[in-house]
């Protein structure tokens, strides 16, 4: 067993209800777990000692929504969008073609590069999805390769592949595809949106996934108002992601449910959509997460700090709310916020995922927008930066 005391913490965000946010604090990491949290002067002896000289410390970011098993590039599509073209889900087909043509090694290296890029910015727990394969063999390949991430979601229902009818593709997803992929993933997601899958088709897929023991998530209300949020609540999904177009009854449904509203502000900016009404969700009592939605089409960033900054400056979230949403909220969306090895929290027994900012306070994430503030990162107790 090896231990490290991190002392001299100017502001420690724990996300633990009892510990709260501490000034002049310390924590001790033992192997891959947090062993102790408390006042700096009382820190127990440890094998190694790191004094962070008054910097702010928080849990590593928990990025609960990415699409990183992909190949290819959509720079031209992005440029066209910035010149006024609308975002259309059809762009997904371009990435499907490139992904099918890539080797396993290419896909694995691309995924690893993006996980490392995110980790260098403080992301210590990351979910990723299939969804650029859309055949049984390609979705299975993506599910296997995705295991470099902490959590893997099956998104066979990302788009109806060209040349197929929606009904026959839903039959395939609910049967042969889920049979093949379910043993390799923890979650199933559906893109419930006009131009992708309607509520009945989405429900069939989610129920088939639930019957195979998978947790559920939904892409909903991204490009317009729609049934995604209500369906997610109805089936007991852990999260509904996007939530850009919400009605009052969607907000009420989320507030009365255990379904996390995962907001993806970098995607809304990159697709020139309005930003979601985080304030309405929080004021109603809904649980909010922030995630990057890192993918080559609608949101090509791995920066959780950018999402937090945007949430504070443009979505009327407080810094504390945004930081919590990007750590504890993401963990809750992945159902990993409690128990031994919990993420998104810093308390004894939690996974030692620690993010040190080159700042005296998390407020600087919004006060100094765009400035890289990650000073040091521990993931599972190992210093990776
Ligand atoms: O979450 N909404 C659907 N899927 C992705 C977009 C993926 C793409 O454009 O390649 C999203 O935004």
Automatic annotation (TrEMBL):
EC number(s) per entry: 3.5.2.7
Keyword Mitochondrion: no
Gene3D superfamilies: Metal-dependent hydrolases (3.20.20.140), Urease, subunit C, domain 1 (2.30.40.10)
Binding site for 4-imidazolone-5-propanoate: 74, 132, 158, 222, 298
GO terms assigned for molecular function: imidazolonepropionase activity
Catalytic activity: 4-imidazolone-5-propanoate + H2O = N-formimidoyl-L-glutamate
Keywords: Cytoplasm, Histidine metabolism, Hydrolase, Iron, Metal-binding, Zinc
The organism's place on the tree of life at top rank: Bacteria
Residues annotated for Zn(2+) binding in this entry: 65, 67, 219, 293
Positions annotated to bind Fe(3+): 65, 67, 219, 293
Listed pathway(s): Amino-acid degradation; L-histidine degradation into L-glutamate; N-formimidoyl-L-glutamate from L-histidine: step 3/3
Top enzyme class: hydrolase
SUPFAM superfamilies, alphabetized: Composite domain of metallo-dependent hydrolases, Metallo-dependent hydrolases
Binding site for N-formimidoyl-L-glutamate: 132, 295, 297
Domain Amidohydrolase-related intervals: 57-359
Cofactor binding description: Binds 1 zinc or iron ion per subunit.
InterPro entries linked to this entry: Amidohydro-rel, HutI, Metal-dep_hydrolase_composite, Metal_Hydrolase
Cellular compartments annotated: Cytoplasm
HAMAP family the record matches: HutI
Protein purpose: Catalyzes the hydrolytic cleavage of the carbon-nitrogen bond in imidazolone-5-propanoate to yield N-formimidoyl-L-glutamate. It is the third step in the universal histidine degradation pathway.
Protein's UniProt name: Imidazolonepropionase
Species whose genome carries this gene: Saccharopolyspora rosea
